[in-house]
Design goal:
With 319 residues, this protein is α/β, with parallel strands linked by helices. It has 8 helices and 15 strands.
Length: 319
């Protein structure tokens, strides 16, 4: 399959591009970018570099691929996802896929009408460590009771679009995908109670830079998290139940070439293991395996579920 990439974000260069290069199913990678040139990538594509465009509309109209990956500032996601779906392409969008629930609903309906895949690249749950936790819970025939997460990063560069409201910036837009997907992944339930609070703001631009979240699920299950920019780097997840405790490091952005640690405590016995895995590669393998089958609609349904919870969380946020 050939893929067209609209935009050229840092995440795309560091994480998505290597996953696409390694995929046996991807034969050509076409790129449309207004800020980068093909000279930056010539030595990295190993024969997979296809056409290069400096105009997104011309790239879409070229019909050079089957799938479009959107790697643009947040405020452009809806417009270019809409145009790509209308042109007959499967679409994968970097998080957040949209900035409004109504936009998500529109694009999901459009993708169903066009019989196309529409997905958001929230990929943290495709690391092997999450499979290990799920398998362990299945053997225990148990579910988590308490989930605690923290994902904070140092301040972004001043000109980063995430620092500006007009570009769909802010910690909530950038990181809430992690918060709302945790319940779906770990509890396999929808929350019945949602609350949150904005914790900090950028003094220069007014954009939110930190937030907390608290969600309650059936049978006294609870999820709590803190996310934000401009703080000491922390990236961990703690999952506990009556007889178990899992602690994961680098859970939300695990580098594919690093051993990621998972500590497990079962009935008082503590073990520690480390595993490598490329979450983006696993995600794209699943996308490519399902986008031309009826299973493709699972991606838009997951996206709609997360977007609905995100909408409720945003309405509940306190300043």
């Amino acid at each position: 399959m050939e893929i067209l990439v609209l935009g050229c974000s840092d995440v795309f260069i560091r994480r998505v591009l290597p996953a696409l290069i390694s995929s046996k199913e991807i034969t050509k990678i076409h790129i449309a970018s207004k800020s980068k040139t093909h000279a930056l990538f010539d030595n990295e594509f190993y024969g997979k570099l296809g056409l290069w465009f400096n105009n997104y509309s011309i790239a879409i109209n070229s019909l050079c691929s089957e799938l479009v990956y959107i790697s643009l500032p947040n405020h452009l996601h809806f417009n270019w996802a809409k145009k790509s779906l209308e042109s007959g392409f499967h679409v994968v969008v970097e998080k957040p896929a949209t900035l409004k629930l109504s936009d998500t609903e529109y694009l999901v309906n459009l993708s169903h009408k066009k019989n196309l895949c529409f997905a958001e690249s929230t990929v943290w749950s495709y690391h092997p460590n999450i499979d290990i936790i799920r398998n362990s819970l299945a053997l225990l025939q148990d579910k988590p009771i308490n989930v605690n997460a923290t994902f904070t990063i140092p301040a972004l560069k001043t000109n980063n679009f995430r620092n500006f409201n007009e570009f769909g910036g802010g910690a909530f837009n950038d990181m809430s995908a992690y918060a709302v997907s945790m319940g779906r992944v770990l509890f396999d339930e929808k929350p019945y109670s949602i609350s949150g609070e904005f914790l900090s703001f950028n003094n220069m631009t007014g954009v939110d830079t930190g937030f907390s979240v608290k969600m309650k699920f059936g049978k006294e299950k609870i999820l709590k998290g803190i996310f934000g920019f401009g703080l000491e780097y922390k990236n961990f997840l703690e999952i506990s139940g009556d007889s178990f405790l899992f602690e994961l490091s680098r859970v939300f952005s695990p580098p594919p070439d690093s051993e990621i640690n998972i500590k497990t405590k079962l009935d008082g016995h503590l073990t520690s293991q480390s595993f490598k895995g490329d979450s983006y590669a696993k995600f794209f393998d699943l996308i490519l395996a399902t986008c031309n089958t009826n299973e493709k609609f699972q991606w838009s349904e997951l996206l709609l579920q997360d977007s609905t919870v995100k909408h409720k969380l945003k309405l509940a946020m306190k300043k």
